[in-house]
Design goal:
210 residues, alpha+beta, six-stranded mixed β-sheet, two-stranded antiparallel sheet, 5 helices, 8 strands
C-alpha cells in the first residue's frame, strides 16, 4: 500500500500544494525519499490499510481518501510487488496539530508537488499520476473541500483552486461561477481584516462529493 497525500502549506507569497515524503530506513533504496506506505494486513480492508499505514508513517489522518490505481510493472521493485495506491487530501489547518502528537515519525518532510526529488521505486510516476488526477477532478467536483476548513471565503476557495491547478484564475469569473452553485451555502458569518468583511461559505453536505 502507498498513499499520496496532498495539503496546502504556508509560503511567504501564497500557500503551496505539497505532499509528505518519508526517508527510507532500509534497503532497497535506503535513505531515498518515498511515498508513505506499508503492507496490507491479512484481515484488513484496502481503505483501512491505506489510512493505517499513512498514520503509522506520517502521523497524518486525511480528510479525504480515494483509491487511485494499482501499480504492478514487473520492474518496479527488486522483487515482484503490486501496490494498491490511494490518494488523500488533508486540511492545512490540521497538519501541524496532527504532526505535533507524541511519537510522530521524524523522517517525514514536505515537498512542493512540482519539485519532487528522485524517489524510490516508481514513486515519482505515482505522484505525477495522483497530481494529474487531482487537477482533473478539481474542475468538476467539490474535491477542494478536503483542503479547506469547514468555513471559508470565496477568495480562500479560489486560492485553493489556484494552488491545485498551478495557475491564476480571474477573481470575477470565479465568483460568478460559484455564487450560484448549489454546492456552496452562504453562512451568516463574516471574516474581518484589513479589507471589507468577507462572507464565509460552507459546502452543502447534501451535494454530491464525488
Amino acid at each position: 500500500m502507498s498513499t499520496v497525500i496532498f495539503s496546502l502549506r504556508p509560503d511567504p507569497e501564497s500557500d503551496r500544494l505539497m505532499l509528505p515524503l518519508v526517508r527510507r530506513t532500509r534497503e532497497p533504496h535506503k535513505s531515498m525519499w518515498a511515498l508513505p506506505g506499508g503492507w496490507l494486513g491479512a484481515a484488513e480492508g484496502l481503505a483501512d490499510a491505506a489510512a493505517r499505514t499513512l498514520a503509522e508513517t506520517t502521523a497524518l489522518t486525511p480528510s479525504y481518501l480515494e483509491q487511485l490505481y494499482t501499480f504492478g510493472d514487473v520492474d518496479r521493485s527488486p522483487t515482484r510487488v503490486v501496490s494498491v495506491v490511494y490518494w488523500a487530501l488533508l486540511r492545512s489547518d490540521l497538519v501541524d496539530a496532527q504532526r505535533a502528537v507524541a511519537g510522530a515519525p521524524e523522517n517525514v518532510e514536505w515537498f512542493d508537488v512540482d519539485d519532487l526529488p528522485p524517489l524510490a521505486f516508481d514513486h515519482n510516476r505515482i505522484a505525477e499520476y495522483a497530481l494529474w488526477r487531482l487537477r482533473n477532478k478539481v474542475g468538476y467536483s467539490r474535491i477542494a473541500a478536503g483542503l479547506l476548513p469547514d468555513r471559508f471565503t470565496l477568495t480562500e476557495l479560489r486560492e485553493v483552486y489556484e494552488s491545485v491547478l498551478g495557475r491564476r484564475l480571474d477573481p470575477s469569473n470565479f465568483r460568478r461561477l460559484l455564487e450560484g452553485s448549489e454546492a456552496l451555502v452562504p453562512t451568516e458569518s463574516f471574516r474581518t481584516g484589513k479589507h471589507r468583511p468577507a462572507r464565509l461559505y460552507r459546502y452543502n453536505a447534501e451535494a454530491d462529493a464525488s
